[in-house]
Each structure stands twice: as C-alpha cells, then as structure tokens.
C-alpha cells in the first residue's frame, strides 16, 4: 500500500512511527492557522481593493539567506543555496515570480539558543530582530535547527504591517536540496512556507467545511495526505467526484510528490503580493 508506509521516520531529532503520523502532526509545519476574524478581514480587504492581477506582469523577490548555526551545525553550501533558488524558480514560474539572491549578502550567525528556536519563541524574536533585512524588499529566509520534529513555518502577508521583525520563513536547514531530512530534502519545505508567506492556506484547512482554503479550484479534503499517495484515488476528498490534491505544494505529501499550485492559488498569491508586498512587482 503506497499511502501506508510503516517504516519509522526520524526527522530533526524526533522519531515518528510513520509518514502518516508525521503528516497528521503537521508535516512539521508550525505556521499558525489564522483565526476566523483574520481570515474574514483579509478576504474583505482583498475584495475592497479590486485588484487587477492582469496588470502584474513580473515579480522579482530578493532572497536574504540568514543561516543560524550552532558552531558548524547547520552550515549551508553555496551549491545548496543555488539549488534551492532553482527549486523556487521552477515552482513559482507559473505565478511569474523570479527569486534571486546575492552570495555576498548571505548572513551566517552562530548562536546555540537561536539554532534550536521554536515557533513564537523569544529566541525567534531575538534572532530575527538582530539579523533581518528590510522585509518590504527581501524574503528573509532563515535556516536553523529548530525544535525537534519541525520542518519550518512562515508569517502571513497581512502580519507584515503590525510586526515587521517577524516577517519571513524559517526552515529546518536539512530540508534544503542535498540536506539529510529525507524524504523532505528536495527544497519543497521552502516552497510550501513561501506559499504561506504569500497568503495561501493548507489545501485541507477547514476540512470539509464550507470555505476550506478559500481557493475555489482546490478540492477540499478532510486532512493532510502523506507519503506518495496514488493520484488516481480520491483518498480523503470531501466530494465523491473529486480527488484529494496530493501533488499540491500546500498539502503534506513527500517532497518528490509536490508539483503544483492551482490557477486559483496563483491568482490568490498575486492578489496578496499586490495588496501587501507590492515592492516586489516590477
Ligand atoms: Zn504549512
């Protein structure tokens, strides 16, 4: 059975009994699920803005890599950064986004407490306040060791105005291409977290409730998928005629299985960039 791997899995110093167990605990994504009020307020703001996404031709995002180390632990090579940027450019090409970075501006900082940071912790706050570049002009891309079992997290675009210091994504260092966090070491954790950073929710958000992930063309499903699920099967799709989006970047399948944003997600990313991150539009 493809979707029921029974071998145990060790991710970021924590052992899980199976890929399913890891996915059900969140595929290590600690991005906060927005509350009902935040969701409604954002939707209303996008509605009122009457954004014409046809006018957005090209989007360029400067990536500020910030590698938090514990002595030598967490080191990222130039080749890994290049491969990660290539993965991002391939994934976001349908959106019209180009990511680039300058090797001369990569930051490295060793701090044992910050290396083990948790989502929402004082260590996260301190590290970001000290190391960030301008969040309006950069994607602050932090790598670190993180609390056991986590792969990463992101802030949402509407959080930028109220909290500039926290903006960006935090990624387990070994998920970058060539890292040791197999089967999550092809760089898709960064794609997934940037999806959040540009306003997307998980495809299974809300389960089978009415609004789901607020994107019309992602089939709603009752919870995350994991491993390499057979895409000819419906799995946990809510409607009988639909299939769970097992290849969607905002689901929890293995890195090798993640290959797509839907047109509805692409439209929503562009709306969020226009409304909250317009300095990236060229
Ligand atoms: Zn996530």
Structure characterization notes:
This protein is an alpha/beta fold and 282 residues long. Strands 3, 4, 5, 6, 7 and 8 form a six-stranded mixed β-sheet that branches. The chain has a two-stranded antiparallel ribbon with strand order 1-2. The chain is 26% helix and 14% strand. The chain has a single domain, classed as Collagenase (Catalytic Domain). It has seven helices and eight strands. The chain is globular. A hairpin with a 2-residue loop joins strand 1 and strand 2 (14-16).
Distinctive features:
282 residues; alpha/beta; Collagenase (Catalytic Domain); 6-stranded mixed sheet; two-stranded antiparallel sheet; binds zinc ion
List the helices and strands and how they pair.
Layout lengths: L8 E3 L2 E3 L2 H6 L11 H14 L9 E11 L8 H15 L4 E4 L6 E4 L1 H4 L6 H10 L6 E7 L7 E3 L14 E4 L15 H10 L65 H14 L6
Parallel strand pairs: 3-4, 3-5, 3-6, 6-8
Antiparallel strand pairs: 1-2, 7-8
The chain binds zinc ion.
């Amino acid at each position: 059975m493809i979707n029921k791997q029974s071998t145990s899995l060790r991710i970021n110093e924590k052992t899980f009994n199976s890929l399913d167990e890891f996915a059900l605990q969140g595929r290590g994504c600690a991005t906060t699920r927005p509350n009902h009020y935040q969701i409604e307020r954002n939707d209303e703001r996008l509605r009122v803005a009457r954004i014409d996404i046809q006018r957005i031709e090209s989007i360029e995002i400067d990536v500020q890599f910030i590698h938090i180390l514990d002595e030598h632990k967490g080191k990222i090579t130039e080749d890994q950064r290049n491969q990660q940027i290539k993965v991002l450019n391939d994934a976001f090409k349908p959106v019209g986004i180009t990511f680039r970075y300058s090797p001369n501006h990569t930051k490295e900082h060793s701090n044992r407490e910050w290396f083990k940071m948790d989502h929402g912790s004082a260590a996260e706050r301190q590290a970001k306040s000290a190391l960030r570049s301008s969040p309006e002009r950069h994607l602050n891309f932090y790598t670190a060791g993180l609390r056991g079992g986590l792969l990463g997290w992101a802030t949402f675009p509407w959080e930028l105005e109220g909290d500039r210091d926290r903006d960006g994504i935090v990624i387990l260092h070994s998920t970058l291409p060539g890292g040791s966090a197999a089967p999550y070491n092809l760089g898709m954790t960064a794609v997934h977290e940037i999806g959040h950073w540009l306003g997307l929710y998980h495809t299974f958000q809300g389960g089978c409730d009415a609004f789901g992930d607020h994107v019309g063309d992602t089939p709603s499903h009752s919870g995350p998928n994991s491993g390499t699920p057979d895409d000819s099967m419906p799995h946990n799709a809510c409607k009988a005629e639909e299939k769970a989006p097992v290849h969607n970047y905002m689901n929890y399948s293995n890195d090798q299985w993640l290959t797509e944003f839907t047109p509805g997600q692409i439209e929503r990313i562009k709306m969020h960039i226009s409304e909250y991150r317009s300095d990236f539009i060229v």
